[in-house]
Protein: Peptide deformylase
Organism: Gillisia hiemivivida
Amino acid sequence: MILPIIAYGDPVLRKKGIEISEDYPKLKEFIANMWETMYEAAGVGLAAPQVNKAIRLFIIDASPFADDENISEEENAQLAEMKMVFINPKIIAEEGEEWAFNEGCLSIPDVREDVFRKPTITIEYLDENFKSHTKTFEGIGARVIQHEYDHIEGILFTDKLSSLKKRLIKGKLTNISKGKVHADYRMHFPLMKKGR
């Protein structure tokens, strides 16, 4: 089932997600719905708060970034295989010199900005079978994880912009929260007038 994606301005996007256990109600169904929602919206990642659940869960499929001529064959191969579920994740290390990459977000349609992040992360997480993992990711894969991880911490990529950039996009963000934006996927807007 395709779920509506929560738009910028909704308080759920600012909540720090809570950890969940294996007996979380209808978890497998929820994860399946998240995959369907993400693919319908042509996203590469989706966090539970973006579909109105303030829990520590996100999914990623970085394969659309594979076959990029600007990155190594090794990284392309890693990205092609990077379809993963992260439950109760904890980033335990972020290393290297920050680099800029143009990011967007399904909850903030039509806004893309360069965001600086560290290139290498190590993360502990549970997969969809609640098996524990500790892995290190680099480059674009690490960035996709960092972006989704921020969501379960109540952080949006726009929070990482300079104050000048924030001022420049303020009007766009206000319009998104009011539903004055076009997205090719189902969305829920917090400030839309009822009955519209």
